[in-house]
């Protein structure tokens, strides 16, 4: 039941309201980027200085008249509002403007419908679409809207609406069951990674901050990356190797945006849980964006909603090649912990510093010891080598092997327990004095 969308290239008249309070204010430039990402043609842009929205049209009746004239003059196919409209406001505006009207949520849903590639992604988008559509069903039956029900008044309009609503409820339940199965499968995969003690690093950030470009650079993958909003929708996981850390799972996720519709957050919860379960979040930030502080706040807001705001986070300021004279660098807090890295994923600048920062943040609990092994412990020696943990080796005067080790404590403990050793006892007996 995945909805067919209109062909791209539709002529759209865009409406943006100024003067709203800070909580509901939207960015007109971001609005234009959303429209471009959806494939619509910007026929006209109308800015309305309105402080108090009206319940019938959101804007005043005089502005509706201006908007109707603008649509006709520019032969607009649809009108897109950079704000959330109620179902009744959409219906009233369509009746007055005699063309389709969609709001910001509908626009974002359309972009998501275009970007979804995997079966899971399509299910999540369809769930959000159905949820959005369920409050707007009456629009298709306005010619029967006088049939409101009641004794002697029940008619085909209400019957069809009830049928549609029932079908929607059935389909929503089907999708939620399928997504629950997806969530269960993801939980199993995460448990397997935890058993193998492979850390997960998740890329998060505002849409179009460069997450996919950075992901491709670090993993030598070919995930779709483009200068447009929501270029990445489906989560992608790759395994990489980091010095001192070993294997790490890197996850690329959907970008966030101002006032991301709550129904989208709910629909994509199975995907966003990849971030909520990560060992380290890389918050990718467009360093050249003048609105980066506001964008960072929006990312924190979504992370709070999915329960990931308390996770360890490393800020990655990307696109420094767009800032004249700026060089890659690390920044630490007062405790000496790396909290910020400045890079350019596209130009490959500062990636060595980023690798160092990730390794340091994940490797706070490292074992760095010089140990002595007996001849009978050759198997344990081989396992230390297989784990890439041996920095150097020499033969002691008594013929025993002296190893300089550096590895994650979790890996160290796992290797020893596999050989029947308690880590504390092993260190007491084998550490070079």
How would you describe this structure in keywords?
seven-stranded mixed sheet; Rossmann fold; 433 residues; 3 domains; ribosome binding; alpha/beta; Alpha-Beta Plaits; disordered N terminus; elongated; four-stranded parallel sheet; 14 strands
The secondary structure category is: alpha/beta
Q: Can you identify the CATH superfamily of the largest domain?
A: P-loop containing nucleotide triphosphate hydrolases
Can you name the CATH architecture of the largest domain? 3-Layer(aba) Sandwich
Largest sheet: 7 strands, mixed
Helical percentage: 40-55%
Shape type: elongated
Strand percentage: 15-25%
Taking strands numbered 1, 2, ... along the chain, how are they ordered across the largest sheet?
6-7-5-8-9-11-10
Q: Which fold name fills CATH's third level, the topology of the largest domain? A: Rossmann fold
**pLDDT < 50 runs, ≥5 residues:** 1-8, 139-155
Termini separation (Å)? 70 Å
| Count, helices | 14
What is the string of SSEs from the N terminus onward? EHEHEHEHHHEHEEHHEHEEEHEHEEHH
- Round the mean pLDDT to the nearest integer and report it: 80
Number of strands: 14
Taking all Cα atoms into account, the compactness measure Rg is 28 Å
Output the CATH class name of the largest domain: Alpha Beta
Taken together, the total number of domains comes to 3
GO cellular component, one term: cytoplasm
Binding site for GTP: 205-212, 230-234, 252-255, 318-321, 344-346
Cofactor: Mg(2+)
Binding site for Mg(2+): 212, 232
């Amino acid at each position: 039941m995945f909805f067919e969308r209109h062909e791209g290239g539709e002529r759209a008249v865009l409406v943006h309201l100024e003067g709203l309070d800070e909580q509901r204010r939207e960015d007109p430039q971001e609005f234009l980027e959303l429209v471009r990402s959806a494939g619509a043609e910007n026929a006209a842009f109308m800015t309305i200085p309105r402080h108090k929205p009206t319940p019938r049209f959101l804007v005043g009746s005089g502005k509706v008249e201006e908007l109707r004239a603008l649509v006709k003059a520019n032969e607009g196919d649809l009108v897109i509002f950079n704000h959330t409209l109620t179902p009744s406001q959409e219906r009233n505006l369509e009746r007055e403007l005699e063309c389709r009207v969609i709001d910001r949520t509908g626009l974002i849903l359309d972009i998501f419908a275009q970007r979804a590639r995997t079966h899971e992604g399509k299910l999540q988008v369809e769930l959000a679409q159905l949820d959005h559509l369920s409050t707007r069903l009456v629009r298709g039956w306005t010619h029967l809207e006088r049939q409101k029900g009641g004794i002697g008044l029940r008619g085909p309009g209400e019957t069809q609406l009830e049928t549609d609503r029932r079908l929607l409820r059935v389909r929503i339940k089907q999708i939620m069951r399928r997504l629950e199965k997806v969530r269960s499968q993801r939980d199993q995969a995460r448990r397997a990674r935890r058993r193998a003690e492979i850390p997960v690093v998740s890329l998060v950030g505002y849409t179009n901050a460069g997450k996919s470009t950075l992901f491709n650079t670090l993993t030598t993958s070919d995930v779709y990356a483009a200068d447009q909003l929501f270029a990445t929708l489906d989560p992608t996981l790759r395994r990489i190797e980091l010095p001192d850390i070993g294997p790490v799972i890197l996850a690329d996720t959907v970008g966030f945006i101002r006032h991301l519709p709550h129904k989208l957050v709910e629909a994509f919860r199975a995907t966003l849980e990849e971030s909520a379960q990560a060992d380290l979040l890389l918050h990718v930030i467009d360093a050249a964006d003048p609105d980066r502080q506001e964008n960072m706040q929006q990312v924190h807001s979504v992370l709070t909603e999915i329960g990931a705001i308390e996770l360890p986070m490393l800020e990655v300021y990307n696109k420094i090649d767009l800032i004249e004279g700026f060089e890659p660098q690390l920044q630490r807090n007062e405790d000496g912990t790396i909290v910020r890295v400045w890079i350019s994923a596209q130009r490959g600048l500062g990636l060595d510093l980023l690798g160092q920062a990730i390794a340091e943040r994940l490797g706070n609990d490292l074992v760095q010891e010089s140990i002595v092994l007996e001849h009978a412990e050759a198997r344990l020696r081989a396992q230390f080598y297989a784990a890439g943990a041996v920095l150097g080796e020499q033969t002691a005067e008594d013929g025993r092997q002296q190893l300089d080790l550096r590895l994650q404590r979790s890996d160290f403990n796992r290797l020893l327990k596999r050989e029947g050793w308690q880590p504390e006892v092993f260190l007491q007996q084998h550490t070079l004095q």
